[in-house]
Amino acid sequence: MSISNRSEEIAGMLKQQAALMRAGDKLPSVRELSKTYGASPVTITQAITALSALGVVRAEPGRGTFVNGNNTAGESDYAWQSTALGRSRVDAGRAGRLNAQGSADHVQLSWGYLAPELQPFDELRTLGARCAKSHRAWTMAPPMGLPDLRRVFAAELGADVADMLIMPGGQQSLVFAMRTLADPGTTLITESPSYPGATIAAQAAGLHLAAVPSDANGIRTDHLAETLERTRAKLIYLQPCYANPTGAVLSPERRVEVLALAKKYGAFIIEDDWARNLALEGTAPPPLFTQDPDGHVVSIATLSKPAAPGLRVGAIAARGPAGERLRTARIADDMCVPPLAQEIALGLLSSGAWPRHLKRLRAGLLERRDAMVAEVHASMPGARITNIPTGGIHLWVRLPEGSDSLVLTAAAHAAGVMIGDGRQFYVDEPTAPHIRLSFSAASIAQIGVGVRRVASLL
Questions:
Q1: Mean pLDDT, range 17-32, rounded to an integer
Q2: Does 394 score more than 90 pLDDT?
Q3: How many H-runs (helices) and E-runs (strands) does the chain carry?
Q4: Which secondary-structure segment (H or E) carries 16?
Q5: Exposed / middle / buried, residue 333 (Cβ in 10 Å: 0-12, 13-18, 19+)
Q6: Which residue(s) pair with 433 in the sheet?
Q7: Separation of alpha carbons 248 and 20, rounded Å
Q8: What angle do CA 263, 291, 228 make, to 5 degrees?
Q9: Which end of the chain has fewer CB within 10 Å, C or N?
Q10: What span, in angstroms and rounded, lies between the C-alpha atoms of 177 and 202?
Q11: Per-residue pLDDT averaged across 359-364, rounded?
Q12: 3-state secondary structure of 242
């Protein structure tokens, strides 16, 4: 992030202010500092970021910015680490904003998980207490996962149990699959716009990224063919079902074309199937994995999205030597996913509570989606929802021409609303200004208040 003369000036004043405070003291909020210094939230954020890099303050997502200890008497010298570490693979700015939760006072229209009232909390609490009493929860589980849990995940895919690998959530699955299936320095192709977590997963794996545009029917296969021919990439990242952030579903015709291209170029497709259980209208399309007999598709499932963010349990399905390599490499990371989490997940998925939860969840999310769509149409006449999603938890909103999504996101944060800056969803330059609004973590009343507050900033 480049720093302007004004933000540099404010950083100097904040540094002097911090010197007069005790270690652990909290700085005023971005909104308060904006008023104090007569500067925009973006300028204040740049100043705080600069001070964080110097170690003067530390920012804690959801809590605020705090003064670090004054170590001038015996100040540590970490300069050598910059040389030893070399260039960072992961974009710190993208990673930080991906996990930005805001404070308890913020209206959360950016968090990609379920509000507490939409989670099956009573069922999880009962299962947790019951499973914790069993010795199985505290012994070593098989590295590939509990056989019965692997069987439950395999049934949805029509896969063999031997093809399944239990993982600690979807994000870890992405990093692990990319790192295992491709060598550092090679290329991963991703649709654009796409999930920022996949971008930082690829960066963590040391991969180069090539973006292919997508539309309402998913990735553009004509551009995909050109990019495969140019890069000879062996890894493609896709969300065929209710893509984040657009809500797009890969059309039947393009599903056939994508699989044909993967076969022609000998490439793997990482299918991020995070939203399968979040259908709002009709039924979700079958996993791409079910149309692929030759092992090109490696499919990832997760319970963190449709159940609870703390239930870090997911699965990878892969056939052939790729599956064997993934299962072998898994042991190098850790010996197993915690058995207690696996036992709870198995209990939830194999009980009547699961379909009842999904039915309640569908109704709750559909009500929230419709409320958000109506509020955007009423309050933001210059903006446009590019696609009303039939599943998932996000709206992709195109802003009026000339809008700056970064400035709007910072101003919304200062006004007490968390939204997603559309720039974060592109590997390359965005094609137009967008924001992502998520309707899963806020109540209907909060959605109305939040959208109107953002609209007022436009």
A1: 87
A2: yes
A3: 16, 16
A4: helix 5-19
A5: middle
A6: none
A7: 52
A8: 30
A9: N
A10: 10
A11: 98
A12: coil
Rounded distance between C-alpha atoms, residue 454 and residue 56, angstroms: 32
Say how far residue 77 (Cα) sits from the centre of its chain: 35
CB proximity list for 376: less than 8 A, separation 6 or greater: 383, 385, 395, 397, 437, 451
DSSP state of 277: T
pLDDT of residue 72: 46
φ/ψ of 22, rounded to 5, equals -90, 155
> Between 60 and 141, where is the model more confident?
141
Closest CA to 414 of 10, 35, 18: 35
- Backbone phi, psi, residue 290, to 5°: -75, -15
- For residue 120, say if its preceding peptide bond is cis, omega within 30 degrees of 0: no
Query: CA distances (Å), 65 to each of 52, 68, 293, in order?
Result: 9, 10, 52
Q: Give the H or E element holding residue 371.
A: helix 353-379
Nearest to 244, CA basis, from 424, 99, 443, 402: 424
pLDDT tens profile 277-334:
999 999 999 999 999 999 999 999 999 999 999 999 999 999 999 999 999 998 888 8
In 3-state terms, what secondary structure has residue 43?
helix
Nearest Cα neighbor of 419 from 454, 368, 377 is: 454
Helix (H, G, I), strand (E, B) or coil at 279: strand
Confidence at 2, pLDDT banded by 50, 70, 90: very low
Q: Model-level pTM greater than 0.90? A: no
Strands (E), 112-259: 164-167, 187-192, 208-215, 218-219, 235-238
DSSP state of 55: T
Q: Are strands 64-67 and 57-60 parallel, antiparallel or unpaired?
A: antiparallel
406-412: average pLDDT: 93
Instruction: Tell me: pLDDT of 37 over 70.
Output: yes
- Token pair 């101003």 is found at 411
In the predicted structure, residue 73 carries a pLDDT above the cut 70: no
Distance of CA 413 to the CA centre of its chain: 19
Contact 289, 253 (CB under 8 A): no
pLDDT tens digits, one per residue of 238-273: 999 999 999 999 999 999 999 999 999 999 999 999
* 302 Cβ contact list (under 8 Å, min separation 6): 169, 170, 173, 274, 313, 314
Does residue 243 contact residue 394 with C-beta atoms inside 8 Å?
no
